Amino acid sequence: MSEVKLKNITKKFDQTLAVSDLSLTIKHGEFVVLLGPTGAGKTTTLRLIAGLESADQGKIFINGQDSTKSQPAQRDVAFVFQQYSLYPNYSVYDNLAFPLRSPYRKMNKQDIDKKVRDIATTLHIEDKLKNKSTHLSGGEMQRVAIGRALVREPNIFLMDEPLSSLDAKLREELRLELKNIQVNLQATLLYVTHDHVEATTMADHIGILKEGELIQFDTPDTIYNQPNSIYVADRLGSPKINIMPSHLLNIDIPENVKYIGVRPENVTIDETAQMQAHIETIQNLGVEKIISMSINGEIIRAIVRPDEFHKIHDTVKVHITRKNMLFFDKNFQRIQIKQ
Ligand SMILES: Nc1ncnc2c1ncn2[C@@H]1O[C@H](COP(=O)(O)OP(=O)(O)OP(=O)(O)O)[C@@H](O)[C@H]1O
Ligand SMILES: [Mg+2]
Fold first, then answer.
1. Least crowded by CB within 10 Å, which of 132, 137, 327, 334?
2. Please, what is the Cα angle at 330 between 303 and 195, to 5 degrees?
3. How far apart are CA 91 and CA 190, in angstroms?
């Protein structure tokens, strides 16, 4: 079992509140993703768990033990950084074997060899084992960095945007591999990304950070469909959720509703509808089209099927079902309304 628990963690750098009263539990075998804009405190949270920073307030428990003051080595965590951090003079093989050769492990040569070859095969770098780690492509280097973490069985894997420096195709491939490996190992993993597709495809739970505070912690499905604020609603989905002033849609709603959110896939163009819209732009993505329309000066995006034919400057009618609307108050917080 390996579980990591943060209780009311606060970390300041001079005047900057990097992490603010953060409580979070990463359960055994769980893949948790931290999502948030730049400066939200994601890296600092990982560094606090690893023991590379010390918390000003709060406690960190690893497997139920208070580890708030433990040295990094005692915490037994594996960290993958955004930029490849390999030993440049070592071969790929030695980079992968390095964590296993620690005298504390007392692993024999054959076991190390098997482990290194297994992980290299999983990550498709088995034919690069003899290369110097500097004689690799960026994608291969990052695989080695991930492999070096995966050869161990630490309490938790901490990964800080490990795929962000790779091209889109490789990122997609490694995303699937990493998720498979995590499931097979039943590894406990805390993963930082800016990429909402990575977050929704890999996470069991997503934590949304804003200025060091955890704003919502839920499954990807709940974060997407039941966000607790406009800030959270904005983090997932492409194109972004439409947020419009409540008076734009002529519907019966309580006074305190100031904004209405509707995902683009829930906006339909329907000749029998009431609301008029003017098409501004059309993006054909092959599997779907994204249509931007103005409704009384507000831009609303719709995702429509590729065979729906519309032209720029067409005037169309738009329909949005009430059950697909999210309601928010003047402070951008969600209001639940019985439908
Ligand atoms: N060593 C440091 N000294 C001073 N301020 C720091 C230090 N490390 C982080 N900060 C500040 O703390 C805040 C959180 O930084 P952090 O690196 O955790 O953000 P992040 O969410 O990882 O952002 P990014 O997405 O850009 O990587 C930022 O305002 C940052 O400037
Ligand atoms: Mg960071």
1. 137
2. 40
3. 28
41 lines ligand 1 (CB under 6 A): yes
Q: Which residue has the higher pLDDT, 86 or 211?
A: 211
Does ligand 1 have an atom closer than 6 angstroms to the CB of 18? yes
Spacing of C-alpha 111 from chain mean position: 34
pLDDT of the residue at 3 = 95
Asked if 92 and 125 touch (Cβ cutoff 8 Å), the reply is yes
Looking at residue 53, what is its pLDDT?
A: 96
Decide if 80 contacts 145 (C-beta within 8 A): yes
Q: Strand ranges (DSSP E) for the chain?
A: 4-13, 16-26, 31-35, 57-62, 65-66, 77-80, 156-160, 189-193, 205-210, 213-218, 242-245, 259-262, 267-269, 275-284, 289-295, 298-304, 315-320, 326-328, 334-335
Report the atom number in ligand 1 closest to the C-alpha of 44: 18
Sequence-ordered list of residues with C-beta below 8 angstroms from that of 294, at least 6 positions apart, any chain? 277, 278, 280, 300
The Cα–Cα gap between 93 and 131 comes to 8
What domains are there in the chain, each with its CATH number?
4-234 (3.40.50.300), 239-335 (2.40.50.140)
* 36 pocket-lining for ligand 1 (C-beta < 6 Å): yes
d(CA 39, CA 29): 28
Task: State the amino acid at position 329 in one-letter form.
Answer: D
Q: What is the pLDDT of residues 171-219, one digit of tens each?
A: 888 898 899 989 988 999 999 998 999 999 999 999 999 999 999 999 9
